[in-house]
Design goal:
The chain has 433 residues and is of the alpha+beta class. 28% of the residues lie in helices and 21% in strands. Strands 9, 10, 11, 12, 13, 14, 15 and 16 form an eight-stranded antiparallel beta sheet that branches.
């Protein structure tokens, strides 16, 4: 039986689509690539998937996305997913591996004080910072819009006045502002990382990690902040795989602890703190990010300690996160038996604290749908190729072979835990609500 596949992935540079097609042809030999949106397999951008066809053909059609998954991919929904789970399960590992986070809903800056009214711990922290002397260590917080990406709207603050100033910056310019003002913008301002508060409304306020594990620069050996990009595949309803090949994305300048001067909104000054590849200076085009910004986690040249311990923590946190989503957020995370999705999870790594036996601790930051695979670049392209091959082998092939999806995937699973696709969570959600 010939399986038709429409691979209509948003890919202006031609980096992704050929890798998907090669993976499919390797593990689904009778595959035929077409442009038909009603093909058996739709590995396409979310907007181009024919959802009517997917729902009408649950046993013969397969989509590369779930319809509803905002419990994970919207920052403020993710915060609610985790906080709701922790109220019911205070012993959960999520309490130790997710930064303290608050959901802020705000239309205009004049309502900021009222919006923060019930965030007692946050307000106490900000007030305490105001009382500290110049040069005294402060507790820092990070502001993130709930529905933005590529570093848009991310800011650091330590006092109420600084937070208020950020939202004043986000206010839209009045119509009678002089056009000449635009000529005075600094190069940093032209990064266009600002947002408009009233258009987003939802933000998260997250405690800034004060002791990040740092990565030595490969030539200067200066310490740089980094985060881990971890790929997770959710399949059907429901099996969750952790992909072993992990990316390390580092900041472009050496790390220095945040100060009121370094994080001034005039010129942003966040290069040492933000590790998004799209914000790094000197990274070249999308297919060739600088080699000093993107690293292979498992490479001997990536000098990080306790890698196996970090990987074990990632598996535990990913498993618990999906358990929280399917157990308490079924309205906002709805799986389908004939769908799968690749998520990009971002983690910071905290340096070991006293009493933790020298082991670093991972901290979940966010979950991304349709992650930007192009940030991997050509040098580490095999990481993306291996991911697509894992999806073709573990998910696509077994679905169309129909030995019973669970049985076929379990058979394909028959390797040790060191393989690239590690099953970390499984639950039968087809029994209904």
């Amino acid at each position: 039986m010939t399986i038709t596949a429409c691979v209509n992935y948003e890919d202006p540079t031609g980096y992704i689509r050929p890798k998907i097609i090669r993976a499919l042809r390797k593990y689904v030999p009778d595959i035929e690539i077409t442009n038909d949106p009603t093909s058996n397999l739709q590995w396409s951008s979310y907007e181009t998937i024919d959802w009517d066809h997917i729902q009408a053909n649950p046993t013969t059609s397969l989509a590369c996305s779930y319809v509803i998954r905002k419990a994970l991919i919207r920052k403020h929904y993710l915060s609610n997913t985790i906080n709701t789970w922790l109220v019911k399960h205070p012993e959960s590992v999520l309490g130790r591996h997710v930064p303290e986070t608050y959901h802020l809903e705000l239309d205009y800056v004049e309502y900021l004080d009222e919006a923060l009214e019930e965030m007692y711990e946050l307000r106490e922290s900000l007030a305490g910072n105001e009382e500290r002397e110049e040069g005294e260590e402060k507790e820092w917080w990070i502001l993130k819009p709930g529905m933005s990406d590529r570093g848009q709207g991310i800011r650091l603050f330590s006092t109420y006045a600084e937070l208020e100033s950020i939202f004043q910056e986000f206010e839209p310019e009045s119509d009678d502002d002089d056009d000449d003002d635009d000529d005075d913008d600094s190069p940093e301002d032209k990064q266009h990382t600002g947002v408009i508060t009233s258009q987003l409304r939802h933000f998260v306020l997250q405690r800034y990690l004060p002791n990040p594990l740092l990565l030595p620069h490969p030539t200067t050996e200066q310490p740089h902040k980094f985060h881990l990009r971890v790929y997770v595949v959710a399949a059907h309803a429901l099996r969750v795989y952790l992909y072993r090949d992990i990316l390390v994305l580092s900041a472009s300048v050496p790390y220095t602890p945040p100060t009121s001067t370094s994080t001034s909104n005039q010129g942003l000054g966040l290069d040492a703190h933000l590790t998004n590849t799209c914000l790094q200076t000197g990274t070249g085009d999308a297919r060739h990010p600088a080699s000093v910004s993107v690293h292979d986690f498992w490479s001997p040249q990536t000098l990080l300690p306790h890698k196996e311990a970090i990987y074990a923590q990632l598996a535990t946190v990913v498993s618990e996160l999906f358990r929280a989503a399917v157990s308490g957020q079924r309205v906002h995370f709805q799986t389908l038996p004939n769908a799968f999705e690749i998520f990009g999870l971002d983690f910071l790594v905290a340096a070991a604290a006293e009493g933790e036996e020298g082991k670093p601790r991972v901290e979940l930051l966010e979950v991304n749908s349709y992650p930007d695979f192009r940030q991997t670049g050509d040098e580490l392209g095999e990481v993306v190729e291996g991911l697509f091959e894992g999806v073709a082998e573990k998910v696509v092939g077994p679905f169309f072979r129909k030995a019973g999806v669970a049985e076929a995937e379990a058979e394909a699973e028959g390797k040790d835990a060191e393989e690239r696709m590690r099953l970390v969570y499984e639950e039968d959600l087809m029994g209904g609500w």
